[in-house]
Amino acid sequence: MFLGGYYLDEKGFFSRIAVTNAIEFIRNEQQGGSNVEFVGPGGSQNVFTTRPNTRPLWSEASSRRRLEWLSIALLVGAVLFTASASAGIDNEQTNNEETQLIGGLSFKAMVELTVVNIDVFVRDEDGKRINTLTVDDFRVSQDGTVREITNFATYDQEFFTNRRQAGASLVDTPPASAQSSEPPPLLQNSYVVIFIDNQNLRQFDRNRVLSEVRDFVRQVMVPSVQVMVVTYQRSLDILQGFTANQQEVLAALREARTMVGARSERDSERTRILREIAQIAQKQTSTRDQRLRDADIHQRIRSFSDEYSLEIDSTIQAIRQVEMALGGFPGRKSFVYVSNGLPMLPGKDLVHELASVNQETPVLSMLVANNKKSYFKALASSASAQGITFYTIDATGVDVSTGVSAEFSSSPGVATFINMTNNQEPLELLAERTGGFSVLNTNNFKSGFERIQADLFTYFSIGYPINSAGGDRIHKIDIQLPDYPEYQLRYRRTFVEKSLTSEVQDRVVSSLLADPGDNLMNISLKLNRAAPTAEGRWILPVTVFCPVESVALLPEEEDFVGRVELYVALRDSVGRQSDIKHQTHEVRLPAAEYEARRQAPLIFDMKLLVEPGDLTIAVGLLDPVTRQSAFARTQTVVRGSY
């Protein structure tokens, strides 16, 4: 199954567990060993093998808010199977006793409440923000069915200002204006990615926008907001990971100003082709010469379009990588994308210009082959499903005298207008479908960033419960104001209901870009000496340690037995990221040795196939019995030679 930009391994999902008066073991056991292929930046190769899975695994559906129960007795009253404490107890008595689970952290509830929280931004017909609505004004539908709103709160700048001045924590603190008898949605951390696309930026335009970005950062970095600065120019470069330190973000933005924008090279090639088309229109030549000129210019346009198309593919992939990593963070997620636009159809303006000169129909194949609309729609759908809001900034600005793009103001015309709209269409699509907005055709970037700031601190938070489907499922959302049809609403149109396995995988991907911070099971990593292999690649041995007492074990004859799921991914210094792969491990320990070994580490070994360079390795460990997970990451340098 493809979800959020990467494939989920079918063996990574667990079956549902039936909880009545006992815990039923799942019958569809996985038999035999399985080779796991780890796909690293350097390629793929079978580099480790899991132990045979001779017993079932189990899991429950995902939840945005899990109830933590303090004891097994509170676990929905489930009566667990019994293991005899001594050989003298008969079978009837044994069946009436409770099996004692050994070890493991506190349980997560097996019956869970999934609450979907949606941020809604409302403006009137004059563009003024509205924050006086009540819960009764909204109507929410999911997949065409009206849902009851159980959580509702209104947030505004005054609330955040008061909390900041009081020095109180902003997280998990609802506003006093919450209008519902039910608990209001919890105020979550906000994560803001500033993505500076140098591959598609002119240096002057970029620096003009960055001046406003710095002011924006100074205004929005309250205790609940963390910011990341990323640049892209053929490869991703994380100038600053997520931080609440304003000075660190400002330093990263200063560094971004020193980089060279690559858009000018693409503009120069486009200008040369437009001049050649103009020369064809001006010169009277023989039919044979005309055919030769047409063939040559067609090839020039086709090459331009094909090369540009490949560049856009790489840009989309870079955005997707950051989007995937951001999706694993719990909280509000905003993606501020700065560029001179991205063409929906590279070379579209050139084809139309040539067609107008030769009085011929545009070459359809040149317009269809490199159409990127489906790519941008998929990017927007994935972001919306992950709760990510795009704010797209076109740094081009406007020519005051013409009111159109200033890119080629010396030769205004149809080609200029087509180029402008072609570059802005993806920006509008990404923003509109994720509940954000675009800043286009303006030199007043300050106003645009003020609107983004207002979105961070002025909104309605609406929550409604759903029955968990038990796996990954995409839902469509529709929100209306029946009594105020003139008001404009912005919100994300979809969300993904995630399984526990998907949540763990998302957290592993997020850990590649930021400290995961969640390690209740106290796992740790150790990197061993890398060894060279063929084709310049290396085998990097990695060992994961986890205390025995952190894993829940069930009695089985004279042993204690449990299961853990190990997930791993890595990223290199140029932004290449591996797929997520996993191992299933059985934990088996003689019951008589448990007390003596409970604080000893369980050891899980794996070997990763990598290329030389700087690497970040992220690991997630899941105990499907208690539904607890833990995450860790480390960084290393694999050298090409010793």
Structure notes:
It is a single chain. This protein has 642 residues and is of the alpha+beta class. Helix content is 29%, strand content 29%. It is built from 13 helices and 29 strands. The strands form 8 sheets. It has a 6-stranded mixed β-sheet, sandwiched between helices. A hairpin with a 3-residue loop joins strand 12 and strand 13 (236-243). Helix 3 (203-220) packs parallel to helix 11, helix 5 runs antiparallel to helix 6 (287-327) and helix 9 runs parallel beside helix 10.
Helix-strand blueprint:
Blueprint: E1 2-3, E2 6-7, E3 15-16, E4 35-40, E5 43-49, E6 58-59, H1 91-95, E7 114-123, E8 139-142, E9 145-147, E10 151-155, H2 157-166, E11 190-197, H3 203-220, E12 225-232, E13 236-243, H4 246-257, H5 263-282, H6 287-327, E14 332-339, H7 348-358, H8 364-368, H9 373-385, E15 388-394, H10 414-434, E16 437-439, H11 445-457, E17 459-466, E18 473-480, E19 488-490, E20 494-497, H12 500-511, E21 524-527, E22 531-532, E23 538-547, E24 554-556, E25 559-572, E26 581-590, H13 594-597, E27 601-610, E28 613-623, E29 628-638
Parallel strand pairs: 3-6, 11-12, 11-14, 14-15, 15-16
Antiparallel strand pairs: 1-2, 4-5, 7-17, 7-19, 8-9, 8-18, 10-17, 12-13, 18-20, 21-23, 22-23, 23-27, 24-25, 25-26, 25-28, 28-29
Helix pairs in contact: 3-4, 3-11, 5-6, 5-7, 6-9, 6-12, 7-10, 9-10
